[in-house]
Amino acid sequence: MPQPAKPRAPKTRTAFDLESYVARSCREVDRALGRFLPSERTKPATIHKAMRYSLFAGGKRMRPALCLAAAEACGGSWEDAMAMACAVECIHTYSLIHDDLPAMDNDDFRRGKPTNHKVFGEGVAVLAGDALLTQAFEIVAQGRTSRRYPAETLVMEVARASGSLQLIAGQVADLEGEGKKLPLAELRYIHERKTSALLCCSVRLGGMSAQCSPAQLEALTQFGYNVGLAFQIIDDILDVTQTSETLGKTAGKDTAAQKATYPSLLGLEKSRKEATRLTDLAFKALGQFKGKATALEALASYLLKRDR
Amino acid sequence: MPQPAKPRAPKTRTAFDLESYVARSCREVDRALGRFLPSERTKPATIHKAMRYSLFAGGKRMRPALCLAAAEACGGSWEDAMAMACAVECIHTYSLIHDDLPAMDNDDFRRGKPTNHKVFGEGVAVLAGDALLTQAFEIVAQGRTSRRYPAETLVMEVARASGSLQLIAGQVADLEGEGKKLPLAELRYIHERKTSALLCCSVRLGGMSAQCSPAQLEALTQFGYNVGLAFQIIDDILDVTQTSETLGKTAGKDTAAQKATYPSLLGLEKSRKEATRLTDLAFKALGQFKGKATALEALASYLLKRDR
User: Fold this and answer.
1) A-chain residues within 8 Å CB-CB of B116?
2) Could A172 and B124 be called an inter-chain contact, meaning their C-beta atoms sit closer than 8 Å?
3) pTM here?
4) Hey, which end of chain A has fewer CB within 10 Å, N or C?
5) How far apart (Å, rounded) are the C-alpha atoms in residues A32 and A86?
6) Interface confidence: ipTM more than 0.90
7) Would you kindly state where each structural domain of chain B is located, as residue ranges?
8) Given pLDDT bands bounded at 50, 70 and 90, which one contains residue B79?
9) Which residues of A touch B121 (CB under 8 A)?
């Protein structure tokens, strides 16, 4: 007599193991960064030590993870996206080093460690940031290109997202906004540039490395923009709700520097709702990928719910 | 009766009018830079004012001139080389802004004007340097490419010359060498990186924009390397022999900062001889171009004989 068929598992989605996904991408990105950057012993040792000190200070590697996940969503491989993932992490790290300088945010701690200028002095910290920015473009030039996305397109993408109309515009507006009561539109302008621009660029580069279609690129742009904005609102919230110990950097800095933030303008509750609304918009953009964007979805959820 | 033929002019080379050549290239480069950079009114206005303040502070535009002259020597046009000429000037200007910061050389004057951080504050000066560095790559990405020299090659050329093994290596070694009695080999290491690297890159990029042959590229490399080294030796000499007024920047800074220089290690006479020897080597490399390198030759002569 034939055995009765085993009952079929109900059609639920298997839980995506984000923790191991992020750990694996972190490991691969670290390995690639280690290969792209000159060793600590390369002359002049000071600059390479300083570059590596901040680059390997235990960052969460969220931008590279988003870049790799975007490549996957478009049917590409991590390998083809790896140079782009490393480039955006170099840009991100350079911007933190310069942002922490006494002339800017004047931060002594970052990721639970003394900031770059605290260890190497201000002069070297400025140069280490410069070197990481330059390194980013050297890495992009070594990345996978295609007819649709040649090197000039990839370089332009990184340069625009990091330039005086985006990332740097955000830093300047942030610097100039200290002590002022900014309207929400202006705060959003800052957040879009300080955070959304590079996050958006990360997923777009991932897509480009996978030779994504124009429609996919547009979806990634929507996703990146909204996740980026939600990410910065959450950052604002954590700055007032968490301790320095949990954050690994000085908490309450925004209030101390009299910076406009989402919580200071909208209150905590409305800020949380806005972050959720933006994350929902990001999810919606992923419809385009018909189930291949699980990692992107999980990353966006995590970024919304994180507590550090 | 037929008129007697006019006597033929003796076969001497017409004197090359360097002054008007440099004035013309300066004008064209300024115009192109003006187009590449966001206007002063573009938000955030501060950063674009700061970028333009230093970029249009009356620099001699020697690197762009060398770049354009190198393109000419290889049969190319100024137009095709213009983006590269502008990119190297952005890199040069960014490195000056950061070099002048209190944490580095701490200079209050440059080209007879207050330095960037004196006008805009240190935070904005750091960001203006960052923005010009980033802008350089955006400009390279818009430059003329060819099968032989695609965008990735041009970007790599600029990134390497400006990165932690060249330009930034020179700055770090310079910073670390202050107050130390360096041997000549170490001083040469610094000069090669601080000055030769970008000068060499300028002429190489000019050649590449003209789709130069490998032999021409090698000749330009030799030329650029030697002119660059001679240029920095002359800079060392001018620092001790000229007034701040003539230089438009603080004279005697090297001595005050106890920096090793060619004059301090070799004396003035031997330093002058070394600069002449290097310029002769540069001339020799131009043999390759069979008379088409008149502008490069004139520029090298001028750089050797300049008094500011």
Assistant:
1) none
2) yes
3) 0.94
4) N
5) 7
6) yes
7) 20-303
8) very high
9) 103
